[in-house]
Amino acid sequence: MKALFSAPAAADGTVGARRPARRAGGWQPLLVVALLTVSSVCALSLGTPYVPPHRLAGTVLDGDTTLAGIVVTELRVPRLVLALVAGACLGAAGLVLQEALRNPLAVPEMLGVSSGAALGVAAPLVLTLSLPAAVQPFLAIGGAALGGGLTLLAAGLGRSPSAVLLTGAAVAAALQAALLVLMVMADQLDLQLIYRYLLGSLSARTWDDVAGLWPWLLVAAPALVLCAPVLSVMRLGDEDAEALGVRAQRARLAALAIAVVLIAPVTAVCGPVAWVGFLAPHLARWFNPAAGAVRWLSWSAAWGAVVVTVADVPARLALAPVETPVGAWTALLGVPAGVALMRAGGRGRGLGRVRRGTAGSGPGGVSLRPGEATGTEDAR
Amino acid sequence: MSRRFAALAALAVVCAGVELVAGRGMSPAVVWDVLGGGGDATERHIFLQLRLPRLLVALGAGACLAVAGLVLQSALRNPLAGPEVTGVTPGAVLGAVTATALGLAGWDSPLAVVLAACAGGCAGAALLWLLAGRGGGDAAQTAVHGVLVSAVLGGLTAMVLLVEPGELGSVVQWLVGTTEGRVWQHWHLLWPWALAWGAAAWLLAGPLTLLRCGDDIALAAGLSARRARTLALLCAVALTAGAVAAVGALGFVGLLAPHLAVALFGADLRASLPGAALVGAVVVCGADAAAQLSSRLLAEVLGSGRLTLPVGALTACLGAALLLVVVRRTPSRTF
Lengths: 380, 335
Description:
The structure holds 2 protein chains of 2 kinds.
Chain A: H1 2-11, H2 14-45, H3 56-62, H4 67-100, H5 108-111, H6 113-126, H7 136-154, H8 161-185, H9 188-198, H10 207-234, H11 238-243, H12 248-270, H13 276-287, H14 293-317, H15 326-359, H16 370-379
Helix pairs in contact in A: 1-15, 1-16, 2-4, 2-14, 2-15, 3-4, 4-10, 4-12, 4-13, 4-14, 6-7, 6-8, 6-9, 6-12, 7-8, 7-12, 10-12, 13-14, 13-15, 14-15
Chain B: H1 2-22, H2 28-35, H3 41-76, H4 88-101, H5 110-133, H6 139-163, H7 168-176, H8 184-203, H9 205-212, H10 215-220, H11 225-247, H12 253-265, H13 269-302, H14 311-329
Helix pairs in contact in B: 1-13, 3-8, 3-9, 3-11, 3-12, 3-13, 4-5, 4-6, 4-11, 5-6, 5-11, 8-11, 12-13, 12-14, 13-14
């Protein structure tokens, strides 16, 4: 574990690595906005019927008088909004989990949170219980809390990062097996639907689905604002955090609860869009390694939105008339990219330490990064 | 020790017996008849061409998975490192699914499926090797990378399945692991492979026992830890790929059986490796018998004949329960 994050730190020239990181930090807002714009325009104009970008505004104003207007306002815009909201939720939840557990690999997928939520949604589908749509998020939350709680309890609340990770992988695998059993019981048509859902898909979502997300966001947003400062303290390590008056275990459980509230409604609507919660925080950290948890949180949410929106374009168009699920694309792109960023982050950490050593402790002078925390804990 | 082996062997025989009579379609009396040389053609066919190979495949695959799991856990010094979390099982699944989707292999040509699964399993392990090999064989790091590799391979499998949705129905059963519809062809492919790599694992039992004690002690005893670990991983990959090709991704046997074996026979692999093979065979065979019995019960209760419980479901439930016990039992250890 230690070698995974710290090996390149000593080898590379810290001075050489310093400049690109700072420059990248400056580019971050521009890049986010550019990617969001391009992918949004693609999402709104490409497809059948093709609406040229310069005529988009007019088409939206036309409303439901023309076919293109109906397609754009009733199908493409809600889909885009859903992608943005879902991505932001997943990105923020990923960062909360990673910071709270001081583990760069603590991703919803690995903690069993996503699989639990998916199980909660898929079970009534397969067993053909008819439930009102409003109950689905609660089932998802129940499943997610079950998965995440089981992992954390079994692994002893963040004792050692790799223990949490492996326990989580096993819990997730068990929940997946339960899902597969449900799928075996389903008939062929249901099976296709469920499989698509389980991979995370944004196809054919309407304004109703988007509306279902708002109440949960209203709960989660204030909680996020409240927990962000605690997260920066948690980065110091359990003992220091306790000394500063944060009850580490309780804070961890609270972070898990917030993550569950963020992830479960998204999962209920568009399925577990995998690995966004892994990639987005690492992107945020890579662009701005010296910032604290508070700034990373907002950038992580922004990057999450970017990742899902960008991934939704090939998901919709790559194999056109057939839709591929966006979750498959985020998994395929997210894991390698996230691992690469994590390794690069190890290099960036070395630079952060040196810079702070020379410049003294600034406002963002917390020198322990998640990777470093795992290193020390493993060495102990 | 030998008494435990004998008890376990007796248990295996009992499980095998239950498995033989547990299925639908024939009552135990008829089975007895067939064993004595009687019965009509259909009954003989069911017994000789369906139940017997199914039993043997269950026993063999269980033994393979258990040995692979024990080898992995010893080599990586990680009580949670089953084949499922090291990229081997997902790789094998990906290989088999891809071959099926490309039309290179069908469910009627088991040899192609075995080969494709082996290739996939090796590819999964190679990917892990590429990622983790650089880090110098650190155990926790290898395991972490294995989880990531599994995630990527799972995504690829999903893509393949979505491009070729017609196969979904038959593949899902196999993703969770089932022994249904296994015939002699599967067994003839499984046993030479299992025997060869099982022998290799047996030869590695001594070095693996040393590796369990830690790299320092192994090095002090004159063992090249890196080379031994590489050989052990290769062996585990091959065993897992063979088993996955035969019965699908049977969940958690590779995690469950080694722990039982170590609890029964101690940490000396020279004793616990054959023990693990026996335990794995008993677990899979018993779970299969239980799954058959319960799907028979379910069919009677619900009145529908098409509901069958796959073995993988039972083993996964057992494995998840055991997992909690394992992790709680080793509270102070950093993995």
